[in-house]
Amino acid sequence: MSRVVLVTASADLTERVRYATGGGFLALPHGPMPSDPAAFFQLLGGAPAPEVVLLDPGQAHDQALALAAGFDRQCPGITVILVSDLGADIVLPAMRAGIRDILPPTSDPSEIRVVLDRALMTAQARVPGAAAAASGAEHVLLPTGRVVSVASPKGGVGKTTVSTNVAVGLAQAAPRSTVLVDLDVQFGDVASALNLNPEYTLPDMVHGPASRDTMALKTFLSLHETGLYVVSGPETPAAADAVTGEDVTRLLQMLATEFRFVVLDTAPGMSEHTLAALDLTTDLLLVTSMDVPGVRGLRKELDTLTELGMFTDSRHIILNFTDPSGGLTVADVEATIGTSIDLALPRSPLVVQSVNQGIPLLQSQGKDPMTRGLRQLVERLAPNLSSPPAEGATRRDRARHRRERSGAR
Questions:
Q1: Are 295 and 328 contacting, i.e. CB atoms less than 8 angstroms apart?
Q2: CA–CA separation, 295 and 274 (whole Å)
Q3: pLDDT interval class at 127 (50, 70, 90)
């Protein structure tokens, strides 16, 4: 028996589990119950994510239930067993926390063995490909999500506004299927744009347990209220030095096996991290502003990407801050860059308000031209996903939306 982790302060229970498993388990170091899945994975010290976690909380049942609920949300492939003598009083709270079985503290090794066998079968059934991997099957194909990179030749063109709204729009249409990564590793402000206060940031994702196991990685992600997962940028420019292009490549490959959409807010220009992202990009969004420096910068970036052979089949050029009083027209921009503009977004005072509040325009479900343009961009990327009904929609609208979503699945 393998991939079982025991959390207990009881030497007697540890010995009984040892007999039940033939020694095929890992006991966490004695100490307080981990507060959340990320803290749990840090205690594993690089060991693979388990299939079964056996929690013996002693008197700390609330902490155990909170940890189990975290596993249920973030690591559905892990089956949690609770060791408890509270009987019927604990059954309902345990079910709500996602706990699959309750084991009396006095259980003998044979009883423990039966419960663990059942839990292992449940864990393997819940993870696609687990049974094949356990039987020695090779070349199991993992699902690969789309990597959407939002790039620009210079800063101040609204790139983060575009990336956060695209990510929110995709997450609203397909909840829990989208992750946004802040790859402006020195001065990224995705967390601020989403009003998040992340516990973990990009360096935590590319080092330690999260860098080796997708199940551990998901516990380090921040969850936005729209159902969007977020990898926030480092807290300081100095911390960014610990993140290499190879780290970015490995992280994005892991995320693409777990999420339908991986949206990247890259740094301006062609940094090491941006080039690593472009190597894996399936959908490229190039953003520029409607001014001479921005347009000339975009032309240089287009030429460079062409020389490097880094264009994808899905490319969208977005002209932001369009304003007819600025002296340039869309036709002028297209003539300069040598290709057509796919989407023109108007200058809007609502963008400043949105950024200051940390509420993306697509989250607020407005009907202004800027919000409509961003919604069109999401629809271009995922035409088969229907957007959620706006606030104030009728019951019939919401029922039709549910039917469309269920039909799409």
A1: yes
A2: 20
A3: low
What is the C-alpha separation between 142 and 178, in angstroms, rounded?
A: 17
User: How far apart are alpha carbons 76 and 54 in whole angstroms?
Assistant: 15
Laid out side by side, the sheet with 178-183 consists of: 222-223, 229-231, 178-183, 261-266, 146-151, 283-289, 314-322, 343-346
**At how many degrees (to 10) do helices 11-21 and 109-126 cross?**
70
Rounded-to-10 torsion of CA 47, 51, 54, 60: 80
The tokens for 356 are 């200051």
Query: Contact at 8 Å (CB) between 37 and 75?
Result: yes
267 secondary structure, DSSP code: P
Paired residues of 265 in beta bridges: 150, 182
Cα–Cα nearest to 299, from 327, 343, 336, 245: 336
Distance, in Å, from the CA atom of 74 to the CA atom of 237, rounded to the nearest integer, reads: 29
3-state secondary structure of 318: strand
Kindly report whether the global pTM for this prediction surpasses the value 0.90: no
Q: What's the CA gap between 357 and 334, in Å, rounded?
A: 34
Distance between start and end Cα atoms, the chain? 36
Per-residue pLDDT at 141 exceeds 60: no
- The bridge status of strand 283-289 relative to strand 146-151 is parallel
Task: For residue 308, count other CB atoms closer than 10 A to its CB.
Answer: 12
From CA 332, how far away is CA 328, in angstroms rounded?
A: 6
Domains and CATH numbers, the chain: 4-134 (3.40.50.2300), 146-408 (3.40.50.300)
Q: Each residue of 21-60: pLDDT tens digit?
A: 888 899 987 778 888 898 898 888 777 888 899 999 887 8
Q: Which amino acid, 60?
A: A
Please name every residue paired with 257 in a beta bridge, in sequence order, or none if there are none: none
Q: Which two tokens stand for residue 248?
A: 């970015």
